[in-house]
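Input.
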Amino acid sequence: MKARQGSRIGEIFADGRQIDKALRLAARDAIRKHALHDAPLVIWRAGRIAWVSASELGAKTQRKTSRKGMRSTKRGR
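Output.
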């Protein structure tokens, strides 16, 4: 499905920051829920499926999301 150019959804897809934020929040929530139940997560690592503890991913996620840098926009370059 192609979004109409100039539409609100088209703007969201073109910019991408709201999508990136939603994906980060969803990943953080999944890690939190797995940690709560002491359940490992399945991730893709080095071209293979890997089982990883939620605590290991939680520590890495907190370091990465603490940066302020997001996807840059064309206007801001």
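The mean pLDDT is 79.
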